[in-house]
């Protein structure tokens, strides 16, 4: 029943003529309701798969479930298209999301659940400038940055002011080392973690069982309602 497969960007659920024929047989005199069974079952299965994928990715990454789910898209089945998909796609997650803490020496983060916290020397947390940076992670406007220069030559982050607070020369110009461009630091992409067979394969296997359960439940519901 149904063909649920995973690929590089997610999983797809499709039905073939054999699936349709079997559902019609099970519905009996209510066989004209087969599309309701298939579309409902596919969509409920993909919704469950998204929840399970979010949980498994959360076991790998030190991220909140809401941020993980943000990069998932459900392509739902309908009566004209008896297929659906769960797709993960998005930019690398800002490092500030991984429990970033400012310290005297840099920024401490924990990206993987299985790894200890890591100190990124000379990095600092600040608000991003411009629409593209400030909204790249939804409502999060603070990010982890460092200067585009060899980090060994920089002073400690808390003593490395930016913008209006940066020291200025006699003519009001900022010192060159404070004018260097910023590099926003990021972690992995959700889609890459989802594509890992360790995550995607068990979610797909479970989705196949959930789909059969959803089909059975919907068929019984229709027979009970109209019978």
Please explain how this structure is put together:
The structure is a single chain. This protein has a 4-stranded antiparallel sheet with strand order 1-2-4-3. Strands 5-6-7 form a 3-stranded antiparallel sheet, with no helix packed on it. Strands 8-9-10 form a 3-stranded antiparallel sheet, with no helix packed on it. β5 (101-102) and β6 form a beta hairpin. The protein has 6 helices and 10 strands, in the order ββαααββββββαββαα. The protein has 227 residues and is α+β, with helices and mostly antiparallel strands. α1 packs across α2 and α2 packs antiparallel against α6.
Topology summary:
Elements lengths: L2 E5 L2 E5 L2 H11 L6 H27 L4 H5 L2 E4 L7 E6 L12 E2 L3 E4 L8 E4 L2 E4 L3 H4 L7 E6 L34 E3 L5 H6 L1 H30 L1
Antiparallel strand pairs: 1-2, 2-4, 3-4, 5-6, 6-7, 8-9, 9-10
List keywords for this structure.
single chain; 227 residues; 10 strands; alpha+beta; 6 helices
Q: Based on helices, strands and strand pairing, what is the structural class?
A: alpha+beta
Largest sheet: 4 strands, antiparallel
Order of helices and strands: EEHHHEEEEEEHEEHH
As for the number of domains, it is 2
Spans of at least 5 consecutive residues whose pLDDT stays below 50 are 130-136, 158-176
Query: Average pLDDT value?
Result: 83
Number of discrete helical segments: 6
Number of DSSP-assigned strands? 10
General shape: elongated
Quaternary structure classification: single chain
Give the percentage of residues in beta strands: 15-25%
């Amino acid at each position: 029943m149904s063909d649920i497969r995973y690929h590089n960007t997610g999983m797809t659920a499709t039905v073939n003529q054999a699936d349709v024929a079997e559902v019609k047989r099970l519905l009996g005199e209510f066989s004209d309701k087969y599309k309701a069974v298939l579309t409902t079952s596919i969509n409920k299965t993909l919704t469950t798969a998204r929840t399970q994928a979010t949980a498994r990715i959360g076991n790998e990454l030190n991220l909140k479930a809401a941020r993980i789910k943000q990069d998932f898209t459900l392509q739902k089945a309908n009566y004209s298209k008896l297929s659906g998909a769960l797709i993960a796609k998005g930019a690398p997650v800002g490092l500030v999301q991984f429990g970033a803490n400012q310290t005297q020496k840099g920024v401490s983060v924990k990206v993987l659940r299985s790894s200890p916290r890591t100190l990124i020397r000379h990095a600092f947390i600040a608000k991003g400038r411009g629409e593209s940076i400030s909204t790249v992670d939804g409502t999060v406007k603070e990010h982890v940055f460092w200067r585009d220069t060899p980090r060994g030559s920089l002073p400690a982050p808390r003593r490395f002011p930016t913008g209006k607070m940066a020291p200025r020369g006699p003519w009001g110009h900022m010192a060159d080392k404070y004018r260097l461009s910023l590099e926003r630091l990021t972690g992995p992409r959700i889609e890459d973690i989802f594509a890992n067979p360790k995550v995607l394969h068990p979610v797909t296997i479970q989705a196949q069982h959930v789909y059969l359960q959803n089909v059975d439940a919907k068929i019984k519901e229709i027979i009970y309602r109209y019978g």
